[in-house]
Amino acid sequence: MNDFTPNPFKLNPKSAFGKTPTKSSKTPTAIWAVGGGKGGIGKSFISTSIAICLTRMGKSVTLVDLDLGSANLHTCLGMKIPSQTLSDFFSGRATNLSEVSTATEIPGLHFISGFNDALNVADLDPNNKQRLIEGLRTLQTQYVILDLGAGTSENTLDFFLAADQKIIAVTPEPTSIENAYRFMKSSFYRKLRTAESELGIQGLIETAMDSKNKLGIKSPADLIRYISQKDPQVGERLKEKIGDFHMHLLLNQVRTREDIELGESMKSVCRKYFGIESDFLGYIDHDNAVWQSLRKRRPLVIEYPYSSIVGQFLGITKNLLNPTPLRAVI
Ligand SMILES: Nc1ncnc2c1ncn2[C@@H]1O[C@H](COP(=O)(O)OP(=O)(O)O)[C@@H](O)[C@H]1O
Ligand SMILES: [Mg+2]
After folding, report:
1. I need a surface site. Which of 10, 65, 133, 257 has the fewest CB within 10 A?
2. Atom in ligand 1 nearest the alpha carbon of residue 70
3. Does ligand 1 come within 6 angstroms of the Cβ of 307?
4. Do the beta carbons of residue 44 and residue 148 sit within 8 Å?
5. How is the chain split into domains, by residue range?
6. With a 6 A CB cut-off, is 252 part of the ligand 1 pocket?
7. Mean confidence (pLDDT) of the chain
8. How far is CA 84 from CA 87, 127, 157, 298, in A?
């Protein structure tokens, strides 16, 4: 990458923003989550970059590291581990989430570290998970960006489902694509589970998740069709429940034109398989500048603010701020 433009953040960070924006108490905090099932595909890089792009658009943002056990967002931000982390919140040493939120050098950006060698996200108890999700909504910030860990543990899925904008990061590699679909499917079924007893469909989701089930249900869309045929009223209520389940696909580490086409083809698979619309947010090139900036412990958006990759992130962030309305298609 060639980028010799002077960096406004380096020269005078405050001048790029003026006054740091604050949230009005009437506006609810919006939560965006970056998931994708697989490790090493760029979720932390994407979360950091989107968070900084939002601050460049004048928004106040809190970036939260929910990859408990492997938390490394502080490194992506070029910071030391803050003195207060989510461990203090979970142990009760901090009663309020804002007590573990640290201001960064980037105006408008706060950071909540998940650093805790002893805690895995799967071990988080339900009470603390609930406290955390409720706490996120009350933070004095306009946007909360959740950087999720790999895997499909129930807690990771619940954080993903708690978000208003659900971003699936995927790279053009078979393993990443496979994990992305698995993550989408698991979160979709997890979402359906919340309505299971209310709709009287207990056991059906468990059955559907078994790929060799005798009902011939091969996909979430099949399950919804099956329920609708059995009882159209329950089917309608179920569709209402999942009406807000939308995902945004983000392709990272793109090298060729064929790579980019994957975004549209995944979108149509989602349509057929889940019976829901997702959208292709956009793509980020594979670029050596990513590891170069990481090695310098400088976020790429700060190090190369006028680069094409930052342009791609700004476009993606704008799309997220004005998402196209999506609907169920079954
Ligand atoms: N667009 C990209 N181009 C080049 N390298 C990338 C890109 N995105 C991520 N990487 C590299 O991939 C690695 C994993 O990124 P990371 O954000 O830690 O992934 P995850 O959070 O999904 O585990 C890092 O070394 C990072 O530098
Ligand atoms: Mg990560």
Report:
1. 257
2. 23
3. no
4. no
5. 28-173+246-321
6. yes
7. 88
8. 8, 20, 25, 22
Question: Is the shortest distance between the CB of 39 and ligand 1 below 6 Å?
Answer: yes
Q: For residue 127, which amino acid is it? A: N
CATH of domain 28-173+246-321: 3.40.50.300
- Residue 112's nearest CA partner among 141, 75, 84, 92 is 84
- Residue whose CA is at the smallest distance from ligand 1 atom 15: 42
The reported pLDDT for the residue numbered 41 is 96
Nearest to 247 by CA among 184, 191, 313: 184
Percentage of the residues of the chain whose pLDDT score is greater than 90: 64
Residue 194 pLDDT:
83
Model confidence pLDDT, tens digit, residues 22-70: 666 567 899 999 999 899 999 999 999 999 999 999 999 999 999 998 8
Q: Does the CB atom of residue 290 touch ligand 1 within 6 A?
A: yes
C-alpha 72 – ligand 2 centre gap (Å):
7
Atom of ligand 1 nearest to the CA of 147: 21
The DSSP code sequence of 108-132 is TEEEE----TT--GGG--HHHHHHH
Ligand 1 pocket check: which of 52, 76, 290, 312 to mutate, most ligand atoms within 8 Å of Cβ? 290
The number of beta carbons lying within 10 Å of the beta carbon of residue 278 is: 21
Q: Which of 38, 45, 260 to mutate to test the pocket of ligand 1 (most atoms within 8 A of CB)?
A: 45
CB 158 within 8 Å of CB 122? no
Ligand nearest to the CA of 295: 1
What are the beta bridge partners of residue 66? 148
Amino acid 270: pLDDT: 86
With a 6 A CB cut-off, is 253 part of the ligand 1 pocket?
yes
State the alpha helices, DSSP H only, in the chain. 8-11, 43-56, 73-76, 86-91, 126-138, 154-162, 174-193, 196-199, 204-209, 220-230, 232-241, 257-274, 289-295, 300-303, 308-321
pLDDT tens digits for 196-212?
888 888 888 888 888 88
pTM reported for the whole predicted model: 0.91
Residues in contact with 95: Cβ distance below 8 Å, sequence separation at least 6, in sequence order? none
| Token digits of residue 208 | 């559907």
